[in-house]
Amino acid sequence: MKEIVVISGKGGTGKTSVTASFAVLGQKEIVVADCDVDAPDMHLLLQPDCGYTEDFYSGELAGIDQSTCIRCGECKNVCRFDAIEVLNGRYLIDKLSCEGCGYCARICPAHAITNKERLAGEWFISGIRTGSTMVHARLGIGSGNSGKLVAKVKNEAREIALEEHKQYVLVDGSPGVGCPVVSSVSGAGFVVLVTEPSVSGLHDLKRVYELVKKFNIKAGCIVNKADINPEITAEIVQYLDNEGIEHIIDLPYDEEFINSIRKAQTIAESDNVLLKALLTEAWERIKHLVNN
Questions:
Q1: N or C: which end of the chain has fewer CB within 10 A?
Q2: pLDDT at 271
Q3: 21 and 194 Cβ atoms separated by less than 8 Å
Q4: Arithmetic mean of pLDDT, 30-38
Q5: Dihedrals phi, psi of 37, to nearest 5 degrees
Q6: Cα-based distances in Å from 161 to 3, 4, 6, 288
Q7: Taking 90 as the threshold, does the pLDDT of residue 178 lie above it?
Q8: β-strands 133-139, 30-34: how paired?
Q9: Of 2-11, 144-153, 194-203, which gets the smallest average pLDDT?
Q10: Angle between the N-to-C axes of helices 199-214 and 230-243, in degrees from 0 to 180, rounded to the nearest 10
Q11: pLDDT digits (tens, 9 = 90+) for 195-215
């Protein structure tokens, strides 16, 4: 079983549209993992049934027992996150501000404060319309620890792939270079970088590849909307050559990307013969690179 992770240095490059197309092309030989847990949207294209749902707990959250609290104010005085507020004489925890450090509980003379596991989101195992399985998640509003939730999604996807003898785990990673991206690429067999020919696109491609290099993972790149700025596309291609990154394919700008999303379908299912052919070629080349 091989793990293919699709990431981008910035949002808006078409990463999820490309990944969802690969999910359709891969059909039942893959398990899909949507690891963009902060802003998941692959479900819009693959229509998961959310057959299995489980709460995800990570970190801690303080709570004040009002029957025990003596209103001394010591907790509020020491909280460096300003997570304790006073309302009608009662000391209350602001859940969005609390970091769960536990200091307030340690200094409370009445032992009125306890830390409990924080409900940080939920994760799902779903059947999708390709006949395969998708593991995905949703991070709660204001919740941290997205990297841990990504790790949970990936581990579940790997276990399913091994149990069902699937050839690939296809991961849609988060954009950027933060903790969720680090968690997404950890343990990957091959990374697909999706970029666009803009100043920020090239800059963030370089940033995210610096991260990939630290993991010593082989990478390839898809340049989306390659024809809108030939000069920067040429700079991207030169950068790929300099870094030894496989230049997988160039995709032209086409409003079919937008039209397909409106129809809740992938580009690989659209009526655009050229885009379908290019994405099919890209998927076959990626599989070749992964297996060799």
A1: C
A2: 86
A3: no
A4: 94
A5: -75, -20
A6: 10, 13, 18, 19
A7: no
A8: parallel
A9: 144-153
A10: 10
A11: 999 999 999 999 999 999 999
How far is it, in rounded angstroms, from Cα 180 to Cα 40?
12
Token pair recorded at residue 49: 């049934």
Q: What pLDDT sits at residue 72?
A: 96
**Alpha-carbon distance 105 to 290, whole Å?**
51
For residue 121, the model assigns a pLDDT of 93
Among 175, 166, 160, CA closest to 207: 175
Domains and CATH numbers, the chain: 2-47+128-291 (3.40.50.300), 61-119 (3.30.70.20)
Answer for the pair 2, 30: CB distance below 8 angstroms, yes or no.
no
Chain centre to alpha carbon of residue 3:
15
